[in-house]
Amino acid sequence: MDVFHYDSVKAQNVEMEGASKIKVRWLITKEMGAKNFAMRIFEIEPDGHTPLHKHPWEHEVFVLEGEGEFFDGEKATPFKFGDVVFVLPNELHQFRNSGRVLLRIICLIPYTKE
Amino acid sequence: MDVFHYDSVKAQNVEMEGASKIKVRWLITKEMGAKNFAMRIFEIEPDGHTPLHKHPWEHEVFVLEGEGEFFDGEKATPFKFGDVVFVLPNELHQFRNSGRVLLRIICLIPYTKE
């Protein structure tokens, strides 16, 4: 068992192509014994965003702070604290900060990425 | 893609033996297409708790609101908003509300429970 505050985990810049003003904290990982899925927090500054991309694995997301929108390549859907976002495998997706303060979301991915 | 507020999902009483004053909202499930893991919120009233039990699958937990403690059968470890709790497979565990307001935690489990 492990109990720790998320801010005790270092926030790293996300250097992916198409990512802007975004950091990630890897909270629960396979290195800690989590064999099935990983928990991360993404912190996106105002006007920042994740890449617009898709991949064969799903995202399970919970919005912790701030305001943003989910862009699927055509339509932007707003979200805020308390919202849940489920992204299916192979769906085009981008998370954007559309507010004036930091956007903080929990985002989980499976380790079984096939 | 699906975006919704967690309170749009019905909170159901948890009727397990050893559970007290606790409700669950199943937010992301296999019925929605989540094949690898499920996202739930547990809402525990003051003095309420989950069962003290263990099982062959892990928990990945994020504390959203309130104050509580993690009990491993011997020792109680306090937690609050922003804390992350990782429970390994087969670890004895209980989540307790030790505060005066509702305790709300996100708790994820794998569907690969072997």
Written description of the protein model:
The structure is a homodimer of 114-residue chains. Chain A is an all-beta fold and 114 residues long. Chain A has one domain: Jelly Rolls. Chain A is 0% helix and 54% strand. Chain A has no helices and 10 strands. In chain A, the strands form 2 sheets. In chain A, strands 2-3-4-10-5-8 form a 6-stranded antiparallel β-sheet, with no helix packed on it. A 3-stranded antiparallel β-sheet of chain A has the order 7-6-9, with no helix packed on it. In chain A, a hairpin with a 4-residue loop joins β6 and β7. The first copy, chain A, is globular, with a radius of gyration of 14 Å. Chain A binds chain B through residues 1-7, 27-28, 32-37, 39, 58, 60, 62, 64, 70, 72, 77, 79, 82-88, 91, 93, 106, 108, 110, 112, and chain B through 1-7, 27-28, 32-37, 39, 57-58, 60, 62, 64, 70, 72, 77, 79, 82-88, 91, 93, 106, 108, 110, 112. β8 (83-87) of chain A pairs antiparallel with β1 (2-5) of chain B.
Q: In percent terms, what proportion of residues of chain A is strand?
A: over 45%
Instruction: Count up the domains of chain A.
Output: 1
Report Rg of chain A: 14 Å
Class computed from helices, strands and strand pairing of chain A: mainly beta
Highest-level CATH class of chain A: Mainly Beta
User: What best-fitting shape of chain A do the alpha-carbon axes yield?
Assistant: globular
Number of helices of chain A: 0
Please tell me the overall pLDDT of chain A: 96
Unreliable stretches of chain A: none
